[in-house]
Design goal:
The protein is mainly alpha-helical. 70% of the residues lie in helices and 0% in strands. The chain has one domain. Residues 93-115 are annotated as: Disordered.
Amino acid sequence: MRDIPLDKTAERRARLLKEENERPQIVIVEECKRCEGLKEQFMEDKLKFFKEAEHMRQGIDKLLEQCATVMSAGALKQLKDSLQLEVRFLTNGDDNNVEGKGKGKGSKPSGDGGIADALRQKIKQLELELEDSEKHNTELLRELERLRGG
């Protein structure tokens, strides 16, 4: 049945138990309060950083919308490409965006695509202005009715 004699098996078991007892034990270390405080501060700072970065990104988008009204489509496209706004290192974006892989300053503006984009932005801006004007007119009409009726 067994090729190994019982005394050899017992010896082996004893050796394994001894090795197991001599092996360093894994100790679960509770984090100190200072570490917890530092982690909380880090998370707060990280959140503030992401909010500030997103605020800056939105500001740049607004500036580009304003530039679209006075710049030619080709120049606007070239400006957008030189800003490399599609490159993101920290937020969810394409994982393929690596430093230097984005479009650079040397990219040539595409002809009709840039004009169409600029016109779409202008239409969007005018639609928003129209919506605001309609809201303002409605408020003025209500005010006029209130003054006439009251």
